């Protein structure tokens, strides 16, 4: 049993368990998932002003389905990586003994089932989004496939889900909701506007940077358990610089696209927001010590914050157009 399970009942018991569950859910991914659901819905509203807003319940259903799917994916990864996490991420609740493997299996099974059930209730686009995400998330972590063993396929799983599936799937689901569940062929001809393609391209490249960067602080455990990563192949400095230049391309590319090719956004706002973010990212990166695992992990979390920020900035840019 976990340490929490052996604790004496007290007023603080539930709070401690909830905090462990919060860590188990990987908060940075929960925040990113939540912002993508509501951000893409806001973008759909801004780009289709003639549509009417449905009741809040279908949107909340989509949000909870995506959160459950998120917890399933990150929870399964932790279940399969306990020994590695004891080296790389000893603070995670299974590695730290705060949640037992059995408890984690129950959480993963329940959230996976709930994600699919809610997605079925939510409609075809939500089911496609959640279903494909769960499939790739399972293949990423679960033996014998365990795609995370291979650098290309590990990155492919992460940026496909975060970059393509989430953005296109949730946007189409948002349109479907705004049209009160009617066939999109009679409403939008299944056409993805250039603004969504631009956001998808930005997130796709950004997620690639996240995918390769995440392995830099984990090099010790990955090497010991024979998990091949770009960091092990090319070294921490090369991967750090590659991730930084990919992010640079993301922000400068969005400025160029926003100024000349995206009629549905405010180009001045897009330019100011993205150039400012790029300057801050570069400034912070110059002080990162690649020999310090804690410093690398802190910068990784900092990158995630700017990932979140895009789902706030881009809807605003669309509403300001």
From TrEMBL:
NCBIfam families: PRK12887.1. Pfam families: UbiA. It is an enzyme of class 2 (transferase). It is found in: Membrane. The chain crosses the membrane at residues 29-48, 55-75, 113-138, 150-176, 196-213, 242-262, 268-286, 298-317. It is a multi-pass membrane protein. CDD domains: PT_UbiA_HPT1. The keyword Oxidoreductase does not apply. It comes from the Bacteria. Its EC number is 2.5.1.115. Coiled coil: none annotated. One of its GO terms (molecular function) is homogentisate phytyltransferase activity. Keywords: Membrane, Transferase, Transmembrane, Transmembrane helix. Belongs to the UbiA prenyltransferase family. It comes from Planktothricoides raciborskii FACHB-1370. This is Homogentisate phytyltransferase.
């Amino acid at each position: 049993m976990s340490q929490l399970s052996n604790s004496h009942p007290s007023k603080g018991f539930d709070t401690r368990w909830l905090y462990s569950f919060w860590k188990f859910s990987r908060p940075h991914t929960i925040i990113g998932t939540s912002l993508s659901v509501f951000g893409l819905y806001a973008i759909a509203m801004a780009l289709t002003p003639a549509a009417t807003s449905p009741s809040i319940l279908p949107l909340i259903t989509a949000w909870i389905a995506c959160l459950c799917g998120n917890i399933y994916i990150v929870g399964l990864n932790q279940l399969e990586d306990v020994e590695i996490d004891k080296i790389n991420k000893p603070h995670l609740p299974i590695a730290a003994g705060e949640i037992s493997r059995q408890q984690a299996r129950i959480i993963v099974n329940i959230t996976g089932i709930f994600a699919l059930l809610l997605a079925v209730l939510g409609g075809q686009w939500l089911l496609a989004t959640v279903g494909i995400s769960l499939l790739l998330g399972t293949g990423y972590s679960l033996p014998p496939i365990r795609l995370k063993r291979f650098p290309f396929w590990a990155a492919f799983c992460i940026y496909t889900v975060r970059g393509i599936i989430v953005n296109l799937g949730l946007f189409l689901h948002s349109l479907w909701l705004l049209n009160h569940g009617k066939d999109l062929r009679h409403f939008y001809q299944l056409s993805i506007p250039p603004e969504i393609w631009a956001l998808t391209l930005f997130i796709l490249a950004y997620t690639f940077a996240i995918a390769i960067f995440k392995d830099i602080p984990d090099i010790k455990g990955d090497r010991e358990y024979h998990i091949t990563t770009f960091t092990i192949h090319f070294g921490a400095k090369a991967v750090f610089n590659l991730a930084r230049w990919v992010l640079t391309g993301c922000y400068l590319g969005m400025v160029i696209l926003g100024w000349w090719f995206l009629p549905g956004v405010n180009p001045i706002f897009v330019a100011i927001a993205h150039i400012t973010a790029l300057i801050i990212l570069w400034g912070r990166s110059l002080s990162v010590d690649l020999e310090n695992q804690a410093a690398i992990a802190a910068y990784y979390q900092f990158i995630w914050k700017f990932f979140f920020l895009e789902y706030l900035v881009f809807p605003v840019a669309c509403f300001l157009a």
